[in-house]
Amino acid sequence: MMRSLFSGVAGLKTHQTRMDVIGNNIANVNTTAYKSQSMVFSDLLYQTTQAATGANSSSGRGGTNARQIGLGAKTGAISTSITTQGSAQSTNNPFDIMITGESFFIVSNGKENFFTRDGSFTIDGAGNLVMSSTGYTVMGWQVDEETGEVLADTVSALRVMNSNNLVYPPESTSQAYASGIVDKLDPSLSSTAGKIMTLTFYDALGYAYTGKFSIHTLGSDGQYYVRLDDIMDEDGVSLVSKYNLSSINEIASFGSQDRIEEEMLYQLLDTATYDSATGQYSMKYYPANILDGYSSSQLVNAAESTTLVVTDGTTVNEGDTVEVTGTIKLTKSELQAENFNLIYAAVVEQVDGEDVTNYYYYGKDENGDSVQLANSASGTDAALDNWTKALEGSFPGVNVTSIEVKSDGSVEMGFSQTFKATKTGKYSADAGYFVGENIEDPLEAYGLSNTSDTTYNIEFTSPDGQAQITKIFEYTGNKLIFDTDTGYFSYVGTPDTDAVSLSFNASATSRQGETISLTHFSNVNIDFSSLTNFNNGGTSTAGLTAGANDAAKSGSGRKRGEMTGIEIGQDGVITAYYDNDQTKVLGQIAVAKFANAAGLAKQGDNLYSATSNSGEFDGVGQDITADGDYMTSGVLEMSNVDLSSEFTEMITTQRGFQANSRIITVSDTLLEELVNLKR
């Protein structure tokens, strides 16, 4: 009878233990990454009152089973559902990390390593990545400072927000490349300024500068040169003026000085007369030579006749205004096309009770307002003024003196247009040209003038004005040569060379004698091999870009960068982002895996420690993606407690506890009856 009492007590204790496990699970239903536990029962010791016997063949008696009386129940095992994944809870905190898979974070209290599935991390005051609940440091792999690669070595604390990681150091630009098209029909290539290209680059301190380069033709197909025109700081101020220098060559060099000589034979013929006694010339300036815009005037070129309004024998000085009058007949199609852009309309109107067709043109005045131009108003001041206003935008200085619109839409117009004289001379109406007298400069007589990069050497070959002229063109820069058969790049600077250097001097001396250090600049190697010499409608697209012409854009340089954010990848790699468009790997969160994760011992605070049955931690860990696991940033793993299962287990536990209590009650009653026998 006493055995049943102790069996009931053992049952009560065992069910109480199971209830303790259930209670702990329910208490941790909202604990981050908590892994639920379950308990199983096993029977306790047995008391054998009679041992089992075997069959006796000699007596013919059969065998009997042993008689054993159990002594109750005990806790068989408490298991942790450690490999069951909890649900995901989004937090949008980049330092909250969830592991998908069977791996564990490695954390340390400074003396020993622990393991956890709780990825609620934060940054402490020293910049370490730590558990937000305990302050234990998160362990991982550091980065090789020289290569920037993660070193898979013994795990150590990840100090992601140290002073070196908060900023990204500046770097000077060392590489650049040119790309695009150099179209030989582009008029800018033969202009004084050339085809402008700019290059933004950085010095070693992270300051930005803009180099101004230009491409110029050398006069032959496929042959050009590139020169450095200026370098400006971030405020657009030229370094030449900023440091009070004489030229940009005192700061940097780009190419070398070269020259091209071209010999020409000039004969004055009827354009000038030469007085060998005085050494002076009398030049003949035809209107196209002396009147600015005369040769390009569409009205003048299309006029049936023109007259210069200049009194015979009157000297016209440089800058004076000369009026040209003329008559012109323009067709309807000409008036509707460039440069007139007029709109034609034939309108039937009532005049004295009869239908009359009037022919109108519509145009825009100087304010962009529509004006009506009609034949019915021909000869009136209003009509002439309207025609003048409509044409002034395309033909500056024009004045319409008479107009008549024909029934076929054509127009007969009288006009005058003014031009400024570019030289001084006397006008001869009979000859139709101006005469400039007593010109002593032989270059002027030949229509030539020396410039900053072009000079002329003249050797007279005869007294009547014939001369051998050598044109000398000097430039500083790098030749840019293309294959004229294919249009592809051939070389820059010297044959078989793809790139040339923008080389900075160590120092410069201002006009006041002050020494300016230029050692913060680095030479920039510029690759021109991507340029082509194709037709692009007369427009060149050549431009310069910092960095090598590859995906990495190495050598592009950068300013000093401030950290703008941190990202933790699925592989645990921690990457910082900076406001100078740079990224930097700060380390990698390593993980641990165990042969028997259920053998880990719980240490509280969501921590586990390795045991002899879980397998030992090797001190290095592994990349989480090696076995297909991964991390998710901004998400936490929730508890894997299933309340429906826990409540069901609670019900069965309660019933078991009640039943065991009844064993004690009934046994007590039996004992009471036994005691009552002596009464």
| SSE class | mainly beta
Shape: elongated
Largest sheet descriptor: 11 strands, antiparallel
Q: How many β-strand stretches?
A: 47
Strand content: 35-45%
The proportion of residues forming helix, as a percent range, comes to 10-25%
C-alpha end-to-end distance: 20 Å
Number of helices: 9
Mean pLDDT rating: 87
How big is the Rg? 50 Å
Low-pLDDT runs of 5+ residues are: none
Give a nutshell description of this structure:
By secondary structure, the chain is mainly beta. It is built from nine helices and 47 strands.
Overview of this structure, please?
- The chain is mainly β and 679 residues long.
- It has nine helices and 47 strands.
- The strands form twelve sheets. Strands 7, 8, 11, 12, 13, 40, 41, 42, 43, 44 and 45 form an eleven-stranded antiparallel β-sheet that branches. Strands 15, 16, 17, 19, 32, 33 and 34 form a seven-stranded antiparallel β-sheet that branches. Strands 18-35-38-14-39 form a five-stranded mixed β-sheet, with no helix packed on it.
- Helix 1 runs antiparallel to helix 9.
- The radius of gyration is 50 Å and the shape is elongated.
- The mean pLDDT is 87.
